[in-house]
Amino acid sequence: MRVEPSINHVLRRMATDVHRDQRGGVGILLVLLAFVLVALIGMVWNTGEFSTRKMRAQAVADTAAYGAAQHNARALNLITASNKVIVRTASAEVLAISAVETLVIVGARLTDLSIKATKLMGGLWTFWAGVELAAQLVPEWQAYVRFAKQVFPAIRKVPQLRQRLRQLDSYQQAVVAQTPRWIEQQRSHIEIASGHQVYLTQAGAAKPGTVSPPVRPGDLASLQATLVAQVNSDRKKLERMLRPIRLGGGQQTWLATTNMTSLFIAGTTKHHVLITQTFTAELAPSNYQRDTAFTVLAVASTDWSTKPQPFIPRYFGKPVRDVVAYGAAETFNGHDNPVTGVTGVVLPWRVWSKQGWWWRPRLTHAEALRLTIQQSNQDQKLADMFQRAGIRFYGSKHDLHPVNLH
């Protein structure tokens, strides 16, 4: 008689057979290792992909900001050069016009004195007084003639000098007007070459998305001090020629006419100065002015061709968003001399003196982005670029962490 095994005995036997049979164990281990390996590959790929695309976007933003600041620096150097020519040309015009006035005034005085000497010599008792006065007038007339011969060629060039000043003003206006266009052309070229969307702006721009050099049209006060200093230097040679004309008041007339003519020419000569110009002083900009007027902000965003491509995006990584990076570059004057003696007037930030030749660009840590966000609530294009990257700035708090900061 055969006895059937119990259920417990059957289950115990099956469990024992399973533990003893090791077939397929390696296959299961390889499958698990494959999943782990794929996950590691995905993590490494995604990290490198996002880092590479972010570094590329950062390089594009830095390049665009630096290039725009370089254009502004070139514009300021050109303004400096033309301002120096304007001052020298205006000084030559002042001397030429003053020479005409001086010749007329001094000539009239010497003529009156000569007539007086002739009348004195016609009298019996005043003859010797007339002779003495005539003897004093001889060297003065000789100095007068020498002065006239010296200044006559310059007097003939007064129309040419005025025409040159008009041309210099047109040149400066063209530089100021063309610089934003050059910057826009460069931005477009960078955008095409890099495959990124590039946006340039300034925190203090009158219109969002525009970049311009930090200059403004000058006025009488901004030119007067520089022109007077140049005239004082240029008129000394002619002033020495008029010293012998004492009775005719040559030197006094020359100084008075040059001073009055300088004021007139300064008021009619057009030029450009920094926005920081205050009356006759060229002062260094404040931190706020540097961030709003001297700093260019560039934002670079990826598009469909440069956007990160995650490894198996369905299982690894979040939904792919645009990568956004920003760069800021400042146009500054790199001269090392900070202060002119006891006056406290800062030299580097100027477009008049020789220190004005040192304008150059540099990448900076300026607060341009924060100021742009605060002041440009109407800048919809800038807002859209950040929002596509999942960054919203127009709330109570500005989350800058997702942006690749300097």
The fraction of residues in strands falls at: 5-15%
Mean pLDDT: 80
Question: How many β-strand stretches?
Answer: 8
- Number of helical stretches of at least 4 residues: 10
Enumerate the spans where pLDDT stays under 50 for 5 or more consecutive residues.
339-347, 394-398
Task: Give the oligomeric state of the chains in this entry, treating copies of one chain as homo and distinct chains as hetero.
Answer: single chain
Rg calc: 40 Å
- What is the H/E string? HHHHEEHHHEEEHEEEHH
| Shape verdict | rod-shaped
Give the strand line-up of the largest sheet. 1-6-7-8
- Report the biggest beta sheet as strand number plus sense, adding barrel if it closes: 4 strands, antiparallel
* Global structural class: alpha+beta
Helix content range: 55-70%
Ends distance:
91 Å
